[in-house]
Specification:
- The chain is rod-shaped.
- The longest helix is centred in the middle third of the chain and has 51 residues.
- By secondary structure, the protein is an all-alpha fold.
- Helices cover about 75% and strands about 0% of the residues.
- The chain has one domain.
Length: about 100
């Protein structure tokens, strides 16, 4: 079995050779293609997990925003019932609202 240094030297020598005669270059080590494909698939899985998580976070944010808007719409009549026009004309409507709250 070749050491990593010997493999490197083989590849460097192959790169330096001008093989205009069409002779074959040294082959890739056994299992090289399998390792490359496995690394590419591992990256794809990690990226898909990140995108899946991001998608869920955006959906959760949209759901929270919709819930906040729905809550404001549902509770508006109750709040509007306790605030009359005189309170809105006054200086501090929050104090008047809290004082009148049942």
């Amino acid at each position: 079995m070749k050491t990593p240094e010997q493999r490197w030297q083989t590849l460097v020598n192959a790169a330096r050779c001008d093989r205009g005669d069409g002779s074959a270059l040294p082959e890739a080590p056994l299992g090289f293609a399998t390792r490359v494909v496995a690394q590419a698939q591992a990256r794809t899985r990690a990226e898909s997990w990140d995108s899946l998580l991001q998608g869920r976070l955006w959906r959760a944010l949209a759901g929270a925003g919709a819930l906040a808007v729905l809550s404001a719409i549902v509770n508006y009549p109750v709040i509007a019932q306790h605030i009359d026009q005189e309170v809105l004309a006054g200086e501090d409507p929050v104090v008047a609202l809290v004082e009148d709250w049942p």
